[in-house]
């Protein structure tokens, strides 16, 4: 007897199809009390000729094996060899499953368990198979096949008796008809025929019915093994079959007498061999059918086989069947057909449940509407867009309480009554605010064993839920006391679904029955928690997902895939899952919602592989329709908080004024693409607003960070054309503008050449624009915006080159004039002092100067002036790092990163603004890097890898690979800085070395350093050669940072790597010469913040000089590094950095300069206080200070 693939069968508790393994020899269905499979359960289209061939093979081999086995078992020499025959077939089944699990076959993925776990199940399986074989040996094929149909009602009865699983009412009559039919056949088939023979003996009937009972018990039992071992039917059977065969073989000597081989005819041996062949064909063809056509089609095929076997069984009996037997056969087959038809019709959820899903999806979507959760919502009906919430609008609703931004986590939503259906509905909103996003990202887990044994949940979700439920639990209970006949419902979409899940746990633990409806919710906790939710009896759980929505699976998959599994703890999803399979824009119906049973069952959403967020917005309908539209949100106070600065322009439209102000502030904040969009929006509200068109031209043009020479030809042509068109329109409308507006429009025309005559050198245009703005400034010197625009024009004459780093002198009169203009403007009271552009520009103006501290007051003010503009939050850190305040630089850059996440999560960031986002992360990385904070450095480097993906790098205009790819090499530099040699060697080189050329070179540089530090010199030399080859492939267009070229930066790496390698060889003078040359190259690099070469070469040189006891030389190196050396340019120093302070303090102590050492020690200790690793040397390449091959995280900690 062979066991193979799966057929659909009813889950009596839900009236749904689940998949069960099938004995195709007798076409029986082995039902489970509850099962969760990993194979997809959706019905697939029949694929044509191949399917027809395999179906034919399956039918013929199934029929053939039944009659072959009957012939074998009726042979007198084999009649008492049931155990041997069963063992033989178990071996065949195991071998077939093994083949089917191989990669070259690929029907399923094998999973192994210990044999001891299989012993009880294998023994039970062997017993029920032997009973089936005995039944076949002592009865007719026709009766045996019909008797096996009893497995369905008997299993259903056992499930009812043991677990209370109810049989669908409509299925009762078919099952009674089936049992009655089998009973009639049992009686009349056991009567003697006209020739006096009995085709089915009483013993055969007893064996057959006993086999059915044993199979039913085995079937119910096996369901628990599926849950316990998390294995599919085929995985379980692959483990079972060999064990069952082994157990049976052990019993053969005690209970069977083997046949005398010489008495067994050759034809019988041939039949045995054929039986094995047929078993393989049944298995393989069964696998193919279930995989190609799905469970419903395979069920139809199974019913066809039953009819064929019964018919052939009657024909082969060679006797006339009594009329009563014919009637019994008819009743049994009709009963089974009716039953399966009911099962197939009931596999989808009920219409009423679809209605409930729709209702609560509308409640969940409505949580986006600000009017439902602000302070004025109490007492009003739940607001929802009338085009979507038809179900909700049919109900009488009343908001009991709206809540906003409950801390921590910023939890938002509302508590309402559905008076029509008598529901108390607590609804949570999904991710919108920065606090929501912080909660999402806090994915480490917290132990909640007080709720359930072994349970752990998402820390961010848990903290947010605790904070919210402390406020909401008393309100829910008060509402319930006032409405005792109402049911409690918790619902939410996305983050709201996660909060609803945890809120339901809180309410249930307080003694309440709660039904939970979550839509697109992420995983909330580990497997123990998912099982706890699944088994909850204090209410129903409906976890609804949609096709390949990324949110429900992101934590589940991240915790199981390298390298994320080292960062993300194990997450699981509860059961059941209601998986919507209809595409976006198509309403979900009964036929498009599948019920997926089992924790972490990958037959539904979890098994999808495409990464997309599109399905996340469609659950029973468009989840965003109920929210404020993007237009409403932009017009409302919920728009980005850009501060209080305003400039009145000539317009009759308040909306145009609003959008002009937003565009102006975005332009001041260097998000120029967003500024253009805002100015364009202003022109839609007022097509006659001249300053809105001026704004388009101003924002689309060059700026301090993107000078004309950074525009590629296509970009330049587009920009000039767009600017000239906007300025032409502004000039046409200028007659209605104020004098200052007309002057600003006229001055801006000097910035752009004619569209049909664009020069190759655009530099003179910068001078022309500044010259045009000068008289405007002198005419309106008290106008703070005019001062900002003129100062900006002056600075753009030599952007990022306003000061000579070596001499500390301004590079031209324009620098002096810009300083005077901006400082004069900031002296004009609070309006000038707190002007966001003045503060912003002054930081840029002074960061390269020898007195960057003069910009500290402006930096402090800017941190609060434009709260949602990430670049403005980042800008003060240029001064922070210039004065050595690295702790504050880390914190402010983190605030900028959060603001960037908020902005980019709305999918509206331009390709260019990605470079700004990356810059903020790099600034945080460097500030953490230079202050000894490994974890923050590493997390920043990892975030860069998440953002700079192939989609960013393939943008050609602007050329994002040239502007951002080199930042991906920072991870290698973090590992070098902190001596993580083995981590460096584990870094994988990019597959596409052309696109990732700088990354490749930096990784190879780091490998060379790591091999040198580990004393593996031959490998270090090989890595050096590879590095030099990779360095040669980096194009001159590739930037390390504006305006530094990566090819120049890698020259520093070349000398530094040579120095490291020569030092390990003992060639100290040669090594130090290379390192000094590296310092010269490093000092010659153009100014950039953070510095282009992340780890100062002086840290390596100073550390190695100390190791060779050349203390005086090391002292001079560290004084230069810290800006304490006479005549050394201050802006090339790294003030107060912990590595340099440690090195200088050691030098002073060893030289006996104890008084100065004490002074430096105070500064060093303060700096060490913020580090998260022990600072034992200025560079981990100095092995004598840290121990050979040790790192920041090795045993010296």
UniProtKB/TrEMBL annotation:
The chain crosses the membrane at residues 51-73, 85-101, 113-131, 143-163, 170-188, 200-224, 236-255, 267-290, 326-344. GO terms for biological process: lipid metabolic process. Keywords: Membrane, Repeat, TPR repeat, Transmembrane, Transmembrane helix. Residues 425-556 form the Fungal lipase-type domain. Pfam families: Lipase_3, TPR_2, TPR_7. The keyword Cell membrane does not apply. CDD domains: Lipase_3. TPR repeats lie at residues 656-689. Gene3D superfamilies: alpha/beta hydrolase, Tetratricopeptide repeat domain. This is Lipase class 3. It comes from Aspergillus oryzae (Yellow koji mold).
């Amino acid at each position: 007897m062979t066991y193979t693939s799966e057929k659909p069968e009813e889950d009596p508790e839900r009236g749904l199809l689940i998949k069960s393994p099938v004995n195709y020899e007798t076409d029986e269905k082995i039902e489970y009390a509850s099962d969760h499979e990993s194979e997809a359960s959706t019905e697939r289209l029949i694929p044509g000729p191949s399917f027809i061939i395999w179906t034919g093979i399956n039918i013929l081999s199934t029929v053939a094996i039944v009659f072959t086995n009957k012939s074998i078992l009726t042979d007198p020499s084999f009649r008492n060899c049931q155990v041997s025959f069963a063992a033989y077939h178990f071996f065949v089944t195991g071998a077939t499953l093994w083949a089917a699990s191989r990669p070259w076959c690929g029907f399923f993925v094998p999973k192994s368990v210990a044999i001891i776990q299989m012993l009880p199940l294998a023994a039970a399986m062997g017993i029920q198979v032997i009973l089936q074989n005995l039944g076949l040996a002592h009865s007719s094929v026709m009766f045996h096949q019909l008797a096996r149909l009893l497995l369905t009602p008997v299993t259903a009865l056992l499930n009812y008796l043991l677990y209370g699983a109810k049989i669908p009412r409509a299925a009762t009559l078919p099952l009674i008809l089936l049992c009655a039919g089998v009973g009639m056949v049992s009686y009349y088939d056991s009567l003697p025929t006209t020739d006096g023979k009995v085709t089915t003996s009483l013993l055969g009937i007893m064996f057959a019915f006993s086999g059915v009972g044993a199979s039913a018990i085995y079937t119910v039992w096996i369901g628990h093994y599926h849950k316990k071992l998390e294995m599919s039917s085929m995985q379980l059977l692959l483990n079972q079959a060999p064990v069952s065969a082994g157990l049976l073989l052990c019993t053969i000597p005690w209970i069977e007498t083997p046949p005398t081989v010489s008495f067994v005819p050759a034809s019988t041996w041939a039949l045995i061999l054929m039986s094995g062949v047929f078993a393989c064909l049944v298995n393989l063809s069964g696998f193919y059918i279930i995989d190609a056509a799905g469970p419903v089609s395979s069920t139809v095929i199974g019913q066809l086989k039953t009819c064929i076997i019964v018919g052939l069984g009657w024909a082969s009996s060679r006797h006339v069947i009594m009329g009563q037997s014919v009637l019994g056969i008819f009743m049994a087959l009709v009963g089974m057909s009716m039953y399966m038809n009911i099962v197939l019709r009931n596999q989808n959820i009920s219409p009423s449940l679809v209605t409930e899903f729709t209702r609560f999806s509308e409640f969940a979507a409505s949580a986006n509407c600000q009017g439902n959760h602000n302070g004025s919502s109490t007492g009003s009906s739940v607001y929802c867009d009338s085009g979507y919430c038809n179900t909700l609008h049919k109900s009488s609703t009343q908001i009991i309480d709206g809540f906003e931004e409950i801390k921590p986590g910023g939890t938002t939503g509302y508590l309402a009554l559905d008076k029509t259906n008598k529901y108390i509905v607590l609804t949570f909103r999904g991710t919108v605010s920065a606090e929501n996003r912080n909660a999402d990202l806090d994915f480490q887990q917290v132990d909640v064993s007080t709720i359930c044994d072994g349970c752990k949940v998402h820390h961010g979700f848990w903290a947010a839920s605790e904070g919210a439920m402390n406020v909401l639990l008393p309100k829910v209970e008060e509402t319930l006391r006032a409405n005792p006949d109402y049911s409690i419902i918790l619902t939410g979409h996305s983050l709201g679904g996660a909060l609803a899940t945890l809120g339901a746990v809180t309410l249930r633990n307080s003694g309440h029955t709660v039904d939970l409806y979550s839509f697109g919710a992420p995983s909330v906790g580990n497997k123990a928690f998912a099982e706890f939710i699944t088994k909850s009896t204090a209410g129903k759980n409906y976890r609804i997902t949609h096709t390949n929505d990324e949110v429900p699976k992101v934590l589940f998959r991240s915790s199981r895939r390298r390298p994320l599994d080292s960062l993300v703890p194990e997450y699981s999803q509860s059961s059941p899952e209601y998986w919507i399979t209809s595409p976006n824009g198509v309403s979900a119906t009964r036929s498009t919602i599948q019920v997926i049973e089992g924790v972490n069952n990958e037959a539904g959403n979890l098994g999808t592989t495409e990464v997309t967020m599109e399905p996340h917005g469609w659950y029973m309908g468009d989840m965003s329709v109920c929210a404020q539209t993007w237009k409403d949100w932009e017009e409302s106070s919920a728009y980005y908080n850009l501060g209080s600065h305003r400039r009145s322009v000539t317009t009759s439209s308040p909306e145009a004024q609003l959008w002009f102000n937003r565009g102006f502030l975005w332009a001041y904040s260097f998000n120029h693409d967003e500024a253009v969009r805002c100015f364009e929006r202003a022109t839609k509200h007022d097509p006659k607003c001249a300053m809105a068109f001026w704004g388009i031209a101003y924002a689309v043009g060059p700026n301090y960070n993107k000078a004309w020479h950074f525009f590629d030809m296509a970009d330049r042509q587009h920009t000039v054309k767009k600017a000239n068109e906007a300025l032409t329109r502004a000039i046409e409308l200028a007659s209605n503008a104020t004098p200052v507006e007309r002057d600003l429009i006229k001055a801006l025309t000097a910035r752009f050449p004619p569209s049909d005559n664009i020069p190759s050198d655009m530099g003179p245009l910068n001078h022309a624009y500044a010259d045009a703005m000068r008289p405007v400034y002198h005419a309106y010197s008290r106008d703070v915006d005019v001062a900002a625009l003129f100062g900006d024009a002056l600075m753009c004459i030599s952007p990022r080159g306003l000061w000579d780093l070596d001499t500390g002198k301004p590079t031209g009169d324009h620098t002096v004039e810009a300083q005077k203009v901006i400082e004069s403007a900031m002296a004009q009271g609070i309006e000038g002092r707190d002007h966001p552009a003045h503060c912003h520009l002054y930081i840029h103006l002074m960061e390269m100067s020898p007195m960057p501290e003069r910009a500290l007051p402006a930096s402090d003010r800017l941190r609060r002036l434009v709260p949602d503009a990430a670049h403005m939050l980042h800008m003060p850190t240029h001064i922070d790092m210039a004065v050595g305040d690295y702790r504050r630089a880390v914190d402010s850059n983190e605030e900028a990163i959060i603001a960037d996440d908020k902005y980019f999560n709305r999918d509206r960031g331009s390709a260019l603004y990605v470079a700004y986002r990356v810059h903020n992360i790099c600034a945080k990385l460097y500030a953490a890097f230079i202050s000894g904070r490994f974890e923050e450095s590493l997390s920043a480097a990892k975030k860069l890898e998440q953002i700079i993906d192939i989609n960013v790098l393939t943008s050609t205009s602007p050329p994002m690979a040239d502007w951002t790819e080199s930042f991906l090499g920072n991870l290698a530099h973090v590992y070098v800085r902190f001596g993580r040699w083995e981590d460096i060697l584990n870094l994988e080189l990019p597959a596409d070395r052309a696109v990732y050329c700088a990354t490749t070179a930096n990784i190879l540089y780091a490998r060379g350093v790591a091999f040198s530090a580990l004393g593996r010199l031959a490998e270090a030399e090989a890595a050096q050669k590879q590095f030099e080859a990779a360095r040669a492939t980096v194009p001159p267009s590739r930037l390390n940072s504006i305006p530094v070229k990566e090819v120049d930066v890698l020259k520093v790496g070349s000398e530094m790597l040579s120095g490291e390698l020569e030092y390990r060889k003992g060639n100290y003078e040669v090594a130090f010469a290379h390192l000094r040359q590296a310092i010269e190259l490093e000092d010659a690099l153009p100014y950039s913040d953070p510095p282009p070469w992340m780890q100062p070469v002086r840290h390596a040189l100073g550390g190695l000089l100390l190791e060779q006891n050349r203390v005086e030389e090391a002292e001079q190196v560290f004084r230069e590094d810290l800006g304490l050396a006479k005549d050394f340019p201050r802006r090339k120093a790294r003030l107060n950095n912990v590595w340099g302070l440690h090195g200088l303090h050691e030098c002073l102590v060893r030289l006996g300069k104890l008084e100065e050492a004490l002074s430096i020690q105070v500064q060093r200790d303060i700096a060490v206080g913020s580090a998260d690793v022990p600072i034992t040397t200025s560079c981990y390449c100095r092995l004598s200070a840290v121990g050979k091959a040790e790192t920041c995280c090795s045993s010296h900690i």
